[in-house]
């Protein structure tokens, strides 16, 4: 079960060392926005060394690499460097729908063969809402690649594209274009049958704001959230860990339908549950087992 993804600039050995102690379920070694152009080459090598160092470490977090976007001309060199370290996944920024995922899939297939890795070993996560055009392609992820393992969204690059002054209001809540992006990413993930991962909360000293945003995300169907600072990780892990009450309810729903397979609806403790509730309960239990 992956609840938290912590971004770590891949040119910072200090932060890389801290990342692995953070308790994050996954680390995103960033080669993109948090690394200046003249440090990309060094960051690739640092990321590779890190992947190799932790490859066999027991209980290590998942290791994801965020490469540079397909239109930058940097993606191939990023992949040439890091695939040898067999990251668990590549996070594709500024992804424009299923075709972008298929494109990255082909790049990975070639490099896995070169390095003797099993075909499909490296998964893909897509950052699905960073360009204006990408919003119109959120419905195209399903079936794009068996590597696709999650969809997330971003508001910073999108606000630059839209020409916005800000993407949050005075109270710190996203303004309407970013709720649209968030909600499209949620639907994109559900349609593609992969987990939806909520975006970062940039105000990294504000734990109450982070918790509130994470709870809203969980309520709506996201199963994880990205972090930019280690202090955010415990809050995110806490919010996205199903409570004993949620687990017990899910088990009761599954048991009630199992006891009466022809039932379309059951009553438990004075509450009605029908087939959609069963689906939701099964999904929750599957997530805990993973
Ligand atoms: N991963 C691992 N360690 C991190 C970290 C991260 N994302 N962010 C901070 N730390 C470490 C710091 O190095 C520091 O450790 P140190 O005192 O041993 O050096 C400690 O946590 C406390 O950091 P703090 O002083 O509170 O913050 P900062 O001013 O050093 O860093 C940021 C603030 C925003 C620059 C930093 O959190 C960061 O780089 N975040 C990731 C940014 C990123 O990847 N963005 C792209 C995705 S949107
Ligand atoms: Mg960005």
Stretches where pLDDT falls below 50 for ≥5 residues? none
Order of helices and strands: EHEHEHEHEHEHHEHEHHEEH
What molecules are bound to this protein? Answer: coenzyme A, magnesium ion
Largest sheet: 8 strands, parallel, barrel
Overall geometric form: globular
Percent of residues in helices: 40-55%
Straight-line N-to-C gap:
5 Å
Beta-strand portion reads 15-25%
SS content category: alpha/beta
Tell me the radius of gyration.
20 Å
Estimate the mean pLDDT confidence.
97
Q: How many β strands by DSSP? A: 10
Number of helices: 11
Furnish the topology, listing elements before pairings.
Layout: E1 4-9, H1 13-19, E2 26-30, H2 40-54, E3 62-66, H3 75-82, E4 89-92, H4 97-114, E5 123-127, H5 132-135, E6 148-152, H6 156-162, H7 176-192, E7 196-198, H8 207-220, E8 224-227, H9 233-240, H10 244-259, E9 265-268, E10 271-274, H11 275-289
Helix pairs in contact: 8-9, 10-11
The protein binds coenzyme A and magnesium ion.
Which structural traits does this protein have?
alpha/beta; binds magnesium ion; 11 helices; eight-stranded parallel barrel; 44% helix; globular; 290 residues; two-stranded antiparallel ribbon; binds coenzyme A
Task: Describe the model.
The termini are close together. The protein has 290 residues and is an alpha/beta fold. Strand 4, helix 4 and strand 5 form a beta-alpha-beta unit. The longest helix has 18 residues, at 97-114. The strands form 2 sheets. It has an 8-stranded parallel beta barrel, surrounded by 6 helices. A two-stranded antiparallel sheet has the order 9-10. The mean pLDDT is 97. Helix 8 runs parallel beside helix 9 (233-240) and helix 10 packs across helix 11 (275-289). The chain has helices at residues 13-19, 40-54, 75-82, 97-114, 132-135, 156-162, 176-192, 207-220, 233-240, 244-259, 275-289; strands at residues 4-9, 26-30, 62-66, 89-92, 123-127, 148-152, 196-198, 224-227, 265-268, 271-274. It has 11 helices and 10 strands. The structure holds coenzyme A and magnesium ion (MG).
